[in-house]
Prior knowledge:
Structural class: alpha+beta
Strand content: 25-35%
Distance between the termini: 30 Å
Number of strands: 10
Radius of gyration: 15 Å
Number of domains: 1
Shape: globular
Amino acid sequence: DTMLASLRFQQWNCTFTPHLHGVSLRTLYRCFQQTPGPSVLLVRDTGGRIFGGFASEAWRCSGKYYGNGECFVFSLRRPIENADRAGGGVESLQVHTWSGLNRFFMFSDSATMAMGQGGQSAISIAGDLLRGSSLLCDTFTSPVLASQPDFV
Length: 152
């Protein structure tokens, strides 16, 4: 229910995946030039945690903040009581919408892409797309979304 109704019912396509496009921010930005518009960022870390964000604009190398209050971040969490069962447990979606505390929705330059700020980013991914961090974030009043604050 967090995503605008007009976007929920659109056909979504995969614009970029490291398996097909490699691990380069430059290539990621080039892919988004060809298919501009909102996107969903999905990350799975080596701890198995799945998290990400809804980006209201196409990612681009800008060196400044952009996006709007439609942005949000999320994580999928498996309940503790089911975590030890092989493939067991239903994952719950935890969504963190704009807090109104600042307007630091999306940031990207040649070295990093990030969602949120206010001291720390909800999601920050390094230029090699192989590592990043997730910290407490004022923009979305979100907790650490990854398995660990620094993730691979």
